[in-house]
Amino acid sequence: MVEYFIPKWEEIEEGILYIVEKMVNDNFIPDAIIAVLTGGVIPAKLIADALGVRNIKYIDIKFYKGIESRERKPVIKAVYVDNIENKKVLIIDDVADTGETLDAVSNIITMYNPSLVRLATVYVKPWSRKYPDYYYKILDKWIIFPWDKWEVVRENSQAPVDKKEKYLEILSKLKR
Ligand code: PRP
Ligand code: MG
């Protein structure tokens, strides 16, 4: 059975501030932020706002078909990136699991010749092939983020998340 870790918003906010403080202590203020769609969007928005960075680009990439089930490689769906040549860039995602997504995104971004690339995720799995420069915690469980709980419930109606009854009611109407 899959073991879940279900962070509350308070934990996410704490994690974001932990990461942002490290960046500020390092004197690292990026010129541009790359949000890894879709899970990285909310951490990217929170970190961007905390640092006062308005310049956010996006890479749309998908690796997981469901809980602990992946494609062979991450599939890059679209790249919404421009004007990062000679800029300091920060790539943000919610989690590094195998590390393949970060690897693929870093490779794409490097082709744009930024002056510096750093990586941040809220969580990282101990087995990840790539460790971000900034992360909050190392965790070995399947994480259900506040922003992907309904995706998880659609796959597993037994997933132990808040407000599930209301969502399942909505889902049954959606499927009619
Ligand atoms: C998840 C997560 C990371 C990636 C991490 O994204 O948001 O982007 O997997 O896994 P990895 O380190 O093994 O590559 P997913 O592919 O599920 O797409 P999503 O963000 O749109 O949910
Ligand atoms: Mg993702």
UniProtKB/TrEMBL annotation:
<dbReference type="Pfam" id="PF00156">
    <property type="entry name" value="Pribosyltran"/>
</dbReference>
<feature type="domain" description="Phosphoribosyltransferase">
    <location>
        <begin position="9"/>
        <end position="148"/>
    </location>
</feature>
<dbReference type="InterPro" id="IPR000836">
    <property type="entry name" value="PRTase_dom"/>
</dbReference>
<protein>
    <submittedName>
        <fullName>Phosphoribosyltransferase</fullName>
    </submittedName>
</protein>
<dbReference type="GO" id="GO:0016757">
    <property type="term" value="F:glycosyltransferase activity"/>
</dbReference>
<keyword id="KW-0328">Glycosyltransferase</keyword>
<keyword id="KW-0808">Transferase</keyword>
<dbReference type="InterPro" id="IPR029057">
    <property type="entry name" value="PRTase-like"/>
</dbReference>
